[in-house]
Amino acid sequence: MAKKVLRKKRAPRKNRLVDFVSPEHDKLAGASVTYQLERVQCGKPRCRKWHGPYWYAYWSAGGRTRSLYVGLKLRPAAEVASELVERRRAKATAAAAAEGEPT
Predict the structure, then answer these.
(1) Confidence of residue 14 (pLDDT cuts 50, 70, 90)
(2) What is the largest CA-CA distance in the chain?
């Protein structure tokens, strides 16, 4: 059986190639979320390799297109966003504790 080759097309950014757009849609903050499987360049000056593929979530909010890195495995965007909020809150708490401020 022949292996199916995914057709690559250029993404809006120079450093990304879109491998697959998922037919699954989700809701995040009332907006429809689209998932894309993308290959990315790491940004190191001597590295020309494409890394991935990684899942990204895209939605529109406030007249702008927003994106969120989901990871190697496809998960709901709301789950990833809540983890991101928790990480940011923990980082802010740790920074405040390091400065000696009460939280």
Answers:
(1) low
(2) 64
Q: Which residues pair with 25 in a beta bridge?
A: 34
Alpha helices, DSSP H, located in 1-103: 77-99
Strand positions, DSSP E, 9-77: 9-10, 16-28, 31-41, 50-61, 64-71
pLDDT of 5 over the 70 cut:
no
In percent, the amount of the chain with pLDDT more than 90 equals: 1
DSSP summary character for residue 4: P
* pTM as predicted: 0.63
Distance from C-alpha of 58 to C-alpha of 101, rounded to nearest angstrom: 37
Contacts of 40 (CB under 8 A, 6+ apart): 15, 16, 17, 50, 51, 52, 54
